[in-house]
Amino acid sequence: MxxxxxxxxxxxxxxxxxxxxxxxxxxxxxVTFVDLYAEYPRFSIDVDREQRRLLEHDIVVFxxxxxxxxxxALLKQxxxxxxxxxFAYGPRGKMLAGKHLMACITTGGSKSDxxxxxxxxxxxxxxxxxxxxxxxxxxxxYLPPFVLYSANHLDEEVAQHxxxxxxxxxxxxxxxxxxxxxxRRLPTFGSFDLPDLVRN
Length: 200
Fold this sequence. Notes:
Strand order of the largest sheet: 2-1-3-4-5
CATH architecture: 3-Layer(aba) Sandwich
Number of domains: 1
Shape: globular
Number of helices: 8
Order of helices and strands: EHEHHEHEHHEHH
Radius of gyration: 16 Å
Mean pLDDT: 95
Number of strands: 5
Helix content: 25-40%
CATH class: Alpha Beta
Strand content: 15-25%
Structural class: alpha/beta
Distance between the termini: 16 Å
């Protein structure tokens, strides 16, 4: 399987977790890694190039920190421009049908914050529903998100475990070793769930 990682983080100097995850993805063989903020610092997205990238891959991974309950601005603009009518959706827009989409996200809030009784009043997957519906409209299969909560408040051992698990997830997607049927049963999953979801 051909995997495309679209990394969107507007404040990389303040992020150790996401930049370390990105570094591990960059070094992974046969995985295409794109740093959207590095490629498009002025938000001038090359739509043709991005559409070609999508056509060349089977699995699209959005890696980003949740900012104000949504994707960072450039990733939203990427969706607005690249997933256009006649290409990604519409009667003749079936170019992405059958591909997979997964969000790999970090949050500032804890898992308890992302609950009906927590400060954010919703579970995290509800904030990602626009991505799920986008995938559905495009004929793609949306996979449950890979989530790291409390990204700015982790002890080193947990942080390193997540960073080291990220390339394992991408490699499992690439090599068709992720147990998709088991993943589908989960609302979200994290690095500590991964050993039970990857086939040897």
